[in-house]
Amino acid sequence: MSQCLLGKISGVLFGPPRDPLAPETRQHIALIAFFAWVGLGADGLSSSAYGPEEAFKALGTHTSLSLYLALATALTVFLISVAYNQVIELFPSGGGGYKVATQLIGPHAGLVSGAALIVDYVLTIAISVASGVDAVFSACPVSWQPYKLATELGLTLLLIILNLRGMKESITILTPIFVGFVISHVFIILYGVGVRGSELPTIVGQTLHETSSLAGQMGWVFVASLFLRAYSLGGGTYTGIEAVSNNINSLKEPRVHTGKITMFYMASSLAFTAGGIILIYLLWHAVPSSTGETLNAVAFRSVIQSLGLGPGLSFWLLTITLMLEGALLYVAANTGLLGGPAVLANMASDGWAPTQFSSLSSRLVTKHGILMMGLAAILILLWSRGVVDLLAVLYSINVFLTFSMSLLGLCIYWWRHRAQQPWWLPRLLLSLVGFTVTCSILMVTLFEKFFEGGWVTVVITSSVIGVCLLIRAHYRETEMQMAKADALLAHLPAQAVANPPALDPLAQTAVFMISQSRGAGMHTILWVQRLFPGVFKNFIFLSVGAVDTQSYGGEGSLEGLQEKVHSACDYYVNFCHGNGIAAKSYESFGTDRVAELTKLALLVREEFPDCVFFASKLIFVHDNWLTRILHNQTALTMQRVLHLQGLFMVILPMKVD
Questions:
Q1: What is the predicted pLDDT for the residue at 392?
Q2: For tag attachment on the chain, is the N or C end more exposed, with fewer CB atoms within 10 Å?
């Protein structure tokens, strides 16, 4: 009864399971460009709430130079976006900065980029939720302030549940907030620039005069340094641009085309919004408020009041605009739960993270990655109490570390392939300029903010890298041990037999749960023959192809997975036939290996009632909590499930030194 109730609750919260083999499933969950823009572009667009302000304030009294900032911001957005279009072309299965660094620079460069992205996405969730709640609570009574942290935690849990239901479901629910933000900010920018557009020639003249005057007094090096510092400290504006390349495998076919359209939407909206807001500051003479109001609030108030709608209506329009700005930050937090698990899944496939992170839930989402990213964000919120000044520093540094490594990888690629690519030089120059820009921003930000918390970035990211190195070392050692077993056992002859022995449904039957390792499978078969000589007349093989991120939309394919499983089953059946043993195999495919094996086991019991199940399990000489986390416990779980069904199962150990 309790399991039935839990199943109903799970169905309500997360929705019914999806069939990964059904063609319509992929069509249903794939994102068109608009929804990809909403889900993956919110992080970048929300940065216009704080990035332009940070850059503008860094100019101090030399605000006329902000005209250069507006132009440079818009150009930089398009520069990085166009460069990441190359990433989309070269890596249409997703992976973004991690895959670029791994394949174009080296595995350890990929590890650094991936670790930086993981930390960045956790901070995206924490900072966006906290900043959004701060923005909304600033319009609420002071007595509500003690409830901010609880609200942040509750909203983070809600995001986790939404994403466990599915990527498209979470995006659909959050779309109205995104659209409201875009409409309100586009209107304010167009109206604000339109009303005072006649002042632009005067402002251009003032900018040129102040630039010349400042250079004459302090030198061009000072002017360049002042501008570069302000430009770099506004680097948070460009966060989130890489999200599309990380999740390209979630887009509607043709993926590359959809990805480029999405990137165009992102670049256009972010360049227009961020550059436009800086221009609004300049045209409407925005000055930082002594009461703690954001510069956006100061500038937007002036623009809205000029509409002549009266104090009451102007107040509500400003409140709604600022609340949409805060709410968009919440939508941006969702980007962390979309991008972070995707990076973890790719790293898990390469052995840097536990393999569970590449598995899919019944709703075809990376459940373990979503839970880990969400829980990590909750821990950060509890640790920081929702105060995000320190976390904002960590956030921007890691973003530009990944940007720089990705663009360096593209530079290396175009130089190496210059003989095969007719348009290699323009692309190389684009990547080189992008690398120079992002690397400069990274260096300036790290230098300026190192003692304000930037050093924490180095510690946290280095810790993640260290853990990943330990995990990779364990997996490689285990692979070497399994390779030895494969070399010893998997070479046994297994040719098809013209007249194989017939199965006897009433005879004693040994049922083997086999995995991808043929050495492990043969180890189990030989042990059963040794322990129970001549007892079992039928050998039945159960194999489940686990649909993960690589086989479902990644570099692999469902067809490749099916072929691999079918080939393994044929090998074992042919081996048995060649040794005079009646044999048969059952195959299944799904996201939950235990559930699929259970279905096959019950099916076998119907046909062969006198059966005993066998499986092997790796036993490590130096067993610890890490080895238990890094390897699934399918055999133990299946033993419990089958015992509850009244079936017998024996686990045969396979020692790994």
A1: 64
A2: N
Q: What is the mean pLDDT of residues 350-377?
A: 90
Q: Which two tokens stand for residue 630?
A: 């890094």
The residue whose two tokens read 């249903």 is: 28
pLDDT tens readout for residues 269-284: 988 998 888 888 888 8
Give pLDDT tens digits for 443-473.
Answer: 887 887 777 777 888 888 999 999 999 999 9
Which residue is associated with the tokens 């605009």? 321
pLDDT digits (tens, 9 = 90+) for 126-145: 888 887 787 777 666 777 77
**Hey, is 587 helix, strand or coil?**
strand
Q: What is the dihedral of CA 35, 41, 43, 46, to 10 degrees?
A: -100
Which CATH code of 1.10.4160, 1.10.3470, 1.20.120, 2.60.40 fits the domain covering 2-388? 1.10.4160
Residue 329 CA to residue 133 CA, distance in Å, equals: 9
- Please state, in angstroms and rounded to a whole number, the distance separating the CA atoms of residues 381 and 134: 13
Which of the four pLDDT bands, split at 50, 70 and 90, describes residue 437? confident
Contacts of 347 (CB under 8 A, 6+ apart): 98, 111, 114, 118, 353, 357, 468
Q: Does domain 490-656 have CATH number 3.40.50.620?
A: yes
d(CA 594, CA 597): 5
The residues pairing with 587 across neighbouring beta strands, listed in sequence order, are 543
pLDDT at residue 1 tops 70: no
Q: Are 436 and 410 in contact (CB under 8 A)?
A: no
Distances (CA, A) of 404 to 119, 374, 435: 16, 27, 5
Measure Cα distances from 221 to 58, 70, 332, 339, 502 in Å.
Answer: 17, 21, 37, 40, 88
327-361: burial string, b at 16+ Cβ within 10 Å, e else: bbbbbbbbbbbbbbbbbbbbbbbbbbbbbbbbbbb
pLDDT of 6 > 60? The answer is no
Describe the strand order of the beta sheet including 648-656 as a list of residue ranges.
Answer: 582-590, 538-546, 509-513, 611-620, 648-656
Q: In 3D, which of 261, 227, 232, 224 has the Cα closest to residue 244?
A: 261
The one-letter amino acid code at 411 reads C
Largest CA-CA distance found in the chain, in angstroms, rounded: 100
How many angstroms separate the Cα of 87 from the Cα of each of 108, 121, 347? 19, 19, 17
Two structure tokens written together for 92: 């249409």
For residue 113, what pLDDT band results from cuts at 50, 70 and 90? very high
The tokens 């979309």 sit on which residue? Answer: 338
* Domain definitions of the chain by residue range: 2-388, 490-656
Q: How many residues are present in the chain?
A: 657
Beta bridge partners of 513: 542
Q: How many Cβ atoms from other residues are within 10 Å of residue 263's Cβ?
A: 28
Residue-wise pLDDT for 45-87, tens only, equals: 887 777 788 788 878 878 778 888 888 888 888 888 888 888 8
pLDDT at 5: 55
**Which of 14-37 are b and which e, b meaning 16 or more Cβ less than 10 Å from the residue's Cβ?**
beebbebeeeeebeebbbebbbbb
As a whole number of angstroms, the distance between CA 329 and CA 188 comes to: 19
For residue 620, report the phi and psi dihedrals to the nearest 5 degrees.
-90, 135
Residue 480: per-residue pLDDT: 84
583-638 pLDDT, tens per residue? Answer: 999 999 988 899 999 999 999 999 999 999 999 888 877 777 777 788 878 888 99
